[in-house]
Amino acid sequence: MFCAVSLPTNCPSKVIWPRPRARHFGRPVKLKVSALALESGGVNIEYTPWLVVGLGNPGNKYHGTRHNVGFELVDRISQVEGIAMNTIQSKALIGIGAIRQIPILLVKPQTYMNFSGESVGSLAAYYQVPLRHILLVYDEMSLPNGVLRIQPKGGHGHHNGVKNVMEHLEGRRSFPRFCIGVGNPPGTMDMKAFLLQKFSPTERQQIDGALEQGVDALRTLVLEGFGPRVNRFNLGQKYKYHQAEKKKKK
């Protein structure tokens, strides 16, 4: 069983993970951090791991499209935290590491968006990650381009990737979400065509700025949970939302 424990700042920690097997999986594996507390001698402490899943479509054809911003944020976290995405497991590209003392599994399903749940359900069960620590990162058309939102739970909002994940989690919805706004299709443009389109230069700049903010926000969520700092982040994004709406009406 995992529990959250605060360590002294001078307490080094070492992340211990099992080596995933690419084809066949046996019994579930618990992910843990072993730590040595300098003041009190040797002690083993276990932390609850996070499963951070970016939703998107695999392949160069979809790289940089609106529907793939979930992949992009996972890639940014991978780069900043030095977590190599170099393992295939459960039809997903995964990276295993930690943010400070917290174990983290970065995931990019390779099943295409509408079947993302196949990877999420399998990995969550295999690594015994609790529902409250399965974080989905995905595009959200109800938010203006570049506006972010973190929620502890919710519905699928007609997002087929989220809907499929919920189906593979036995219909449960109490898992956190990190939504990245991509705006609505202009005029009568087809929704699917819009999502599979790349950003304009201005939109790309907004998304790049949002992803930089998103890395810090995701790190805060993993380390502190839904506390005051995440609440302040959401308030700041709400202000950004209203500013974008005012600008659109002008």
UniProtKB/TrEMBL annotation:
GO molecular function: peptidyl-tRNA hydrolase activity
Record-linked SUPFAM superfamilies: Peptidyl-tRNA hydrolase-like
HAMAP family per the UniProt record, alphabetical: Pept_tRNA_hydro_bact (MF_00083)
Similarity remark: Belongs to the PTH family.
PANTHER family assigned: CHLOROPLASTIC GROUP IIB INTRON SPLICING FACILITATOR CRS2-B, CHLOROPLASTIC, PEPTIDYL-TRNA HYDROLASE
Record's protein name: Chloroplastic group IIB intron splicing facilitator CRS2, chloroplastic
